[in-house]
Amino acid sequence: MKSHRIALLFNANKIFDREVIAGIAAYLSSTRAAWDLFLEEDFRLRLPGIERWQGDGIIADFDDPAVAEALTRSRIPVVAVGGSYENQAAYPEDVPYVATDNFKLIKMARDHLIEAGLRHFALFSLPEAQENRWAQEREHAFRQLMEQDMMEPHVFRGLGTSAPSWDDSVEQQIQWLHSLPKPVGIIAVTDARARQLMQACIMAGIAVPEQVALIGIDNDPLARMLTRIPLSSVIQGAQEMGRTAAHLLDQMLHGVRMSGTRVLVPPVGINVLASTQHEAPKHPHVMRARHFIRQYACQGIKTHQVAEYVGISRSSLESYFRQELNCSVHDVILRFKLDAATSMLANGERSIAEVALCCGFTSVQYMHAVFKRELGCTPRTYQDRAMMGIVDDGSALSAPELAA
Hints:
Residues 287-385 form the HTH araC/xylS-type domain. The chain contains 15 helices and 12 strands. α4 links the parallel β6 (121-124) and β7. The protein is α/β, with parallel strands linked by helices and 404 residues long.
C-alpha cells in the first residue's frame, strides 16, 4: 500500500487546533489510510518554503490568513479547516472547507444562559483583525440573535493579550462589567477570553454566577485549571472536523474531485460547571458566602472562615443557609469540592491521591467516604465509568440543590 506524505499546518498551542489534529489521528486509526504526517516539532507554524515541499497533501487551519495566502497556489491537494462565514464569498475558492458552525456555537451558549434564568446578555469578543475573523463572525451571530429578540446587544472587544497592555486591559474589562445590567449572562468567544473576564470579576468583587454568569467556547482543560471558579464552556466539534477533513483529503488522494465542498460541523454540547449555575439568592449574605466558597472550597476552608469573610456570626450565616438553601454551609463547601473532584477524575490526567489533595479533602480515605455517601460509588469506580463515557465529567452531578 502506498504511503502518502501529508503536512498538518496548525498551531497546536491552541486547543482548537490540537482537537482537530486528534480527529485526524482518530480517522487514520480507524481506516487503512497510510499517511506519513509532517508537523512542526515545537508546534509553531512556519510557512516560508511550504510551496516547495514535495508532499502529497495538506490539511491546514485557514483561520490564519497567512496560511490561506500561502496555499492559494498549491499544486497538491489541500483541505481547509476553520470558522464558518455568513458571507459565502469569504470562503476560499476551489478548496474543500470544513468549518465550525459559529452561529450554532453562539446560539447554544445563549440558549444555555436563557435556560439559567438570565434576561440580560453580553459578548466578550476580540479586537477586529484579519486573524480574528472567526471572532467577528461569532460577534455577528450574537448581534443577530439579540436583534431577533429586540434586545440590546452588549458587545465588548477589549484589548489583545500582551504583557504591556495587561493592566489597561483588566481595567477596561472591569469598567465594562460595572456598566452592564445585572444579573447578566456573558458569552466569551473563547475560554481564554472567559478566563480573563473571570479574573476581572474576582478583582472587582463581582459575584460569579450570581451577578455575572460566564460561559466560554473550546472546553479547554488548561483554562479550567487556571480559573478559581469552574468555567462552563461550549464543546466544539473540532475532533469531528479533523475526521471529516482527513476523509476529504483521503478521497482527493484517490482521485475524487472535492473542489468547493463545504461541511459545517455543529457543536457537541456544553460542559456545565459553576460559572453558569445561576440562581440568584434572596439574601446578599448567602450570595457573598457562596462567592467566597466557589473560589476557595478546594483550599480547605471552614464555615467560620466563610462567616468571617461575610462579616456575620457563624450561627447567623448557618441560619440564612438553612432558610434559603435548606442545607448547611459545610454542605455547600463539600458539594463544590465534590464537583471539582468529579471533573478532575473524569479528565483522567491526575491520580486519585492528587485529586484529593487538589480538591481540599484531608485524605484519600475521606474523599472515598464522601463519594460512597454522596454518589454511591468509589472515586476509582467513578473515574472508570467516566472513561467509558457512562457519566459526564462532573457536570451531570453539579446541579443538586446544594450547589444550585
